Amino acid sequence: MNRIDTLIKKFCPNGVEYYQLSEISISLNGMSNVKNKWAENGNCQFIDYMNAYSNLKIDVNNLPYATVKKISGQTVLKKGDILFTGASETIHECALSSVIEDDIIDGILLDDHLFGIRLKEEFSNRYSIRYLKHYFRSKSFRRKVDKTVKGVTRFYVGKQEFMNIKIPLPPLEVQSIIADSLDKFGDLELDLNKELVLRKNQYEYWHRKLYEKKGDTKITDVFERLKGTPITAGKMKEIESIDGDIRIFAGGQTVVNAYEEDIEKANITTCPCVIVQSRGLIDFIYYEKPCTFKNEMWAYTCNNKITVKYLYYYLKNNVSYFRTIGSQMGSMPQISLPVTEDFMIYLPDLSEQEKIVSILDKFDELVNDNDFGLPAEIEKRKKQYEFYRDRLMIFKELKA
């Protein structure tokens, strides 16, 4: 970042000019008189809310269709327009921004849940759109945006207050090098996400490939069933401790740690096991350390760790089967004990199990591990990008 610091000292040692958004841009409104959205066809295409919410750069390909009563009078978007989300259930998701960096051949409209700005002609050559793309997601700008947001249960951007926000105008040389630096982080994160998708597809392929033989062994023929503990959500909250050495599993993502003395010893599992989440979101958990679980759930184990892990991958490969059965049991998805007890698995010899588990473990770590895999690398690069973006977007205001 020394080069950027050098440029700032050279071109703007005393600070930079600040302008209100209303001074440098015009406001763009979303579609009006919409008869139909998300249809297979219509008389226009539009940039949808999630496109602007999720991406720094707007993708103008494969946009959804809508039908509006009149195209004339609607805001037709063009390259360089900057779009913002208009409302959300949380303050910090209001006025999330994206930019249109590509040429638009056909007329495209703006979702009625979005609004935008377009630089005035006299400022279009003074601001870099690539620079603004990053600036409008910086902490420096977000702090100003949050002050313009109104609402209690649902929040929305006060447009007049928003257009009164002042933003810095550093020299174009500074804007350009900042954008170049931050784009590199974005490109790297994009490449890592593509790699993650590719590896996930490979993981799923091998998951299916390695378990495609028809099952011939009942789970109960090989595995011992383990019982959970009678515990309520209130009791879990009461005995929860970050330093606890026993993990307690409930439905979904609900887990707490507790001390051994707070749990009936007979209900603690100390061997590797596969836990069956039998209500709500039907799923399977592999866990090796001491644990227990709500007694509406159950688990399986045997005297060989490889075989237990093999069972876990086998059940995960068939999770859609169990969820289909669970969805037929009423308003709350659930499966009964016989559904797993009578389930047939294919169980090869131990050396083949070990080979399968080894392959899937490697893929699982690569695509799912938040400490060492691709998700961890993506999160690391994302934090690096946010750190440098927020550091580079702070400019002293030039005094008149």
List its traits.
four-stranded mixed beta sheet; 40% helix; elongated; 400 residues; alpha+beta; four-stranded antiparallel beta sheet
Describe this structure in a few short sentences.
This protein is α+β, with helices and mostly antiparallel strands and 400 residues long.
Structural class: alpha+beta
How many separate helices?
Answer: 15
Oligomer: single chain
Strand order of the largest sheet: 2-10-6-8
Q: How much β-strand is present in the residues?
A: 15-25%
Would you count the extended β strands for me?
A: 22
The largest pleated sheet is described as: 4 strands, antiparallel
Residues in helix, %: 25-40%
Low-confidence stretches: none
Radius of gyration, in Å, reads 28 Å
Mean pLDDT: 87
N-to-C span: 28 Å
> How would the global form be characterised?
elongated
Structural account:
It is a single chain. The chain is of the alpha+beta class and 400 residues long. 40% of the residues lie in helices and 21% in strands. It has 15 helices and 22 strands. The strands form 7 sheets. Strands 2-10-6-8 form a 4-stranded antiparallel beta sheet. A hairpin with a 5-residue loop joins strand 18 and strand 19. Helix 8 runs antiparallel to helix 14. The chain starts with a helix and ends in an 8-residue tail after the last helix. The model has no long low-confidence stretch (mean pLDDT 87).
